[in-house]
Specification:
Its EC number is 6.3.4.13. This is Phosphoribosylamine--glycine ligase. 33% of the residues lie in helices and 29% in strands. It contains 14 helices and 23 strands. Bound molecules: adenosine monophosphate and glycine. The site of glycine (GLY) has 7 residues, from loops.
Length: 421
């Protein structure tokens, strides 16, 4: 098959790496890709959020199957445009991707599906939001309704912070994403990510992971897109995973189907776990980044068969071949991230590192300039290793990190700490 992957992050590098291991892949193109992806596949440049441009590229290049990595093309309806053109695609429709694109929609679906989640109010004007806060003291969580690149969530520790957050949301800081606001009960507990594939009907769990959202060691400092991940996440025991499927995920998928907007693709459920019970924090309509990197490292070539089965509606006959292993990915980011950072610093030492089924450096914000790998983004490398134990995978990942010569970068030194402590 000729396969096209849309995206340019470490997530897409790991998807490309897994797809290329599968003998069913004859040709792989990634758009737009990055320097690491360009080393293993062809890269193409066009607007991946423009459905007509994607359909045009698919026609010209005889693409049989499209895998959509990031949320933006999903929310723009690129999946719908491809399906309308008769192209096989992995990724939800625009209507189904609303599970990520609108927090108010997700809360309403959870109500309909009776899925445990935080109590909430939904507001389109600041006065009503302030009135709600008067009855709901801090700690409390204020969220912009729409996609805000992970920045639209404010956890207010005091009532004054909560009021200030409401003002920020409605003053246009988050653009259209903040025109509607969800205010939510603060849930404490331990967070973990649960990944399932869905073909509109069957739900197939494919793994658990835990991200590290804060920039600093010990989960300190501002939030980021994710500074590292490991899989599996032991806090998500088989029993809790079963409960999450039975109480949250299957009822949500059934409700989506009932409404005539069945969900097809990967569903990433962010769960808060407390006293053995899971509650939903959020859904994402795509793989997590960097969680995808550890999942792909563990699944390998079968990841392609599973995504293909989801796209063709055959998940009822699919099986996941679990290995009893662990994977860790450490994000190397540009100094200054998640604030402003310099671009163009040179990264050395990558060539000496092994690239095999247990060790991979997935690239995120990299480009090749004058023969050198340079940093062009905030999150730049995802140094990923597999081991028989989490400790072994962690030690191996950090060994590789230390072999990379990049003075312009930094990383967290404690990826995996919750599971290891
Ligand atoms: P979201 O964009 O909804 O994933 O929120 C980003 C992060 O904020 C989550 O991963 C949680 O760490 C935190 N968060 C969101 N909602 C809540 C909540 N109701 N209670 C506690 N933490 C939350
Ligand atoms: N790593 C968090 C996310 O992809 O949303």
């Amino acid at each position: 098959m000729n396969i096209l992957i849309l995206g340019s992050g470490g997530r897409e590098h790991s998807l490309a790496w897994a797809v290329l291991q599968n003998p069913k892949c004859d040709k792989l193109i990634v758009a737009p890709g990055n320097a690491g992806i360009a080393a293993i596949a062809d890269c193409a440049s066009f607007d991946i959020n423009d459905g007509a441009a994607v359909v045009g590229f698919v026609d010209e290049n005889n693409i049989d199957f499209v895998i959509i990595g990031p949320e933006a093309p999903l929310a723009a309806g690129v999946g719908d445009d491809l399906r309308a053109a008769g192209v096989l695609v992995f990724g939800p429709s625009k209507a189904a991707a609303a599970l990520e694109a609108s927090k108010a929609f997700t809360k309403e679906i959870c109500d309909a599906a009776n899925a445990p989640t935080a109590a909430y109010g939904h507001f389109t004007d600041a006065d009503a939001a302030r009135a709600y806060l008067a009855d709901h003291p801090a700690p409390i969580v204020i969220k912009a309704d729409g996609l805000a690149a992970g920045k639209g969530v404010i956890i207010a520790e005091t009532d004054a912070e909560a009021l200030a957050a409401v003002d920020t949301m409605f003053d246009g800081t988050f653009g259209d994403a903040g025109a509607e606001v969800v205010i939510e009960e603060f849930m404490d507990g331990e967070e973990a990510s649960f990944f399932v594939l869905c073909d509109g009907d069957t739900v197939l769990p494919i793994g658990t992971a835990q991200d590290h959202k804060r920039v600093g060691d010990g989960d300190t400092g501002p939030n980021t897109g994710g500074m590292g991940a490991y899989s599996p996440a032991p806090v998500l025991t088989d029993e809790i995973a079963e409960r999450a499927l039975a109480e949250i995920i299957r009822p949500t998928m059934a409700e989506m189907a009932k409404r005539g907007t069945p969900y097809q693709g990967v569903l990433y459920a962010g769960l808060m776990i407390k006293d053995g019970a899971p509650r939903l924090v959020e859904y994402n309509a795509r793989f997590g980044d960097p969680e995808c990197q550890v999942l792909m490292m563990r699944l390998g070539a079968q990841a392609f068969d599973l995504m293909h089965a989801a796209a063709e509606g055959r998940l009822n006959e699919a099986r996941v071949n679990w290995a009893d292993d662990h994977a860790v990915t450490v994000v190397m980011a540009a100094q200054g991230y998640p604030g402003s950072y310099d671009k163009g610093s040179v990264i050395k030492g990558l060539d000496a590192l092994p690239e095999d089924s247990r060790n991979m450096v997935f690239h995120a914000g990299t480009a090749k300039k004058d023969g050198a790998i340079t940093a062009i983004g905030g999150r730049v490398l995802n140094v990923t290793a597999r081991g028989d134990t989490l400790a072994e995978a962690q030690a191996r990942a950090y060994e590789m990190v230390e072999a990379i010569d990049w003075p312009g970068g930094f990383y967290r030194r404690d990826i995996g700490w919750r599971a290891l402590s």
